[in-house]
Design a protein that fits this description.
globular, two-stranded antiparallel ribbon, mainly alpha
Amino acid sequence: MLEHPDPAGTAAALYELLPADHDLRQVPLHSSRLAHRWLQVYVRFLTDIFDDPIAEHRGHGLGPFTLVLNTAMAQGNDAVRLAARLHAQCEVNCWVDGPNRAWLADVITHALAVGLYRPDCGWEKVRDLLRERADLPVVVSFNGSFPTFWGSRSGGEAEVPNEAEQEWETLAADEQWQRGMAALRRRHEDQLEIRPDWAGYRFGHELSLLDLVAEDRTERLERALSPRRSSA
């Protein structure tokens, strides 16, 4: 995305949005050659594990993690979108419903065929699991963390008695699954379901790097970061 025919203009737009104390403000970009080099350094900051803000607008800091995820969703094919969803939401249990399992298996099959996913790394097992049936959802979990007692709660309880957790442990696996899945389906605001109509899916503030370099970037930032939008 940053390999733009106008590297100087792209770099200038991104430079303008940098936080005042960002290290990249010390890197010159007074020519196309220097701008290209500046963008290469910018890309390295996008992979910063600390997610320090790389853009700022009216006091709102934008970390690279969400910007990169949204750029992948905006510009990537389905294989890239799936990778972004799994990277961002594996620990919070993104999921695919039964009727969409075959579609997601096809996404993985194509990604393996064209070399976007590496073979013999577990993708084949996931693909085969998705193809086994179409009447039950498949949930992504991190280290076998679904379903859990706390994940099955509505989240509105001020205090949960110890007996409730003990009761959970006595439930059959099928009952735990049903309760966990019911709670997961109620989390509409988290948008965790993976669906074929995900071309417009975005994370968090919904801004991508494309928005930061658009001619109307100020208007896009205002819309995304307005108080009314943030409180919705």
